[in-house]
Amino acid sequence: QVRVVESGGGLVQPGGSLRLSCAASGFSLDDYAIGWFRQAPGKEREIISCIGARDGSTYYADSGQGRFTISREGAVILRMNNLKPEDTAVYYCAANLMRTRCSTSYPVHEFAYWGQGTQVTVSS
Description:
Blueprint: E1 3-7, E2 10-12, E3 18-25, E4 33-39, E5 46-51, E6 58-60, E7 68-73, E8 75-80, E9 89-96, E10 111-112, E11 118-122
Parallel strand pairs: 2-11
Antiparallel strand pairs: 1-3, 3-8, 4-5, 4-9, 5-6, 7-8, 9-10, 9-11
C-alpha cells in the first residue's frame, strides 16, 4: 500500500526557518522525481520545488528561489529560510510518475501519491 507522509510544519515568525520532510512507504522515493507543493486557502495548489530521481536536478518556483532548498536524505527534505506570511499554506509532497528529472515546473496532474500535508503558518 502506497503512503506518503509530510511532516515538519508549524507556526513560525517571519524570518524564521522550517525543515519539511517527505517520507514514503509502498514505493521508493528514489525512483521518481518528487515535488513539494503548497495550497493556501482559496488558492490553487502550486508547485514550489522539485528534485530529480537520481541526477540531482532541481527546480524552484520564483516564490522559493534563494530561500528554499530541496534535498534527498532518505526522505525528501525541503528547508525553508526567511519565511514570510505569504508562505502560509498546507505543504504537500508527491511523486511525478511521468518523469525522473526536474528542470522546470510540471503540472500538478503529473504527480500522484499525495499525503495529507503539513500546515505551515508564518505569523508574528
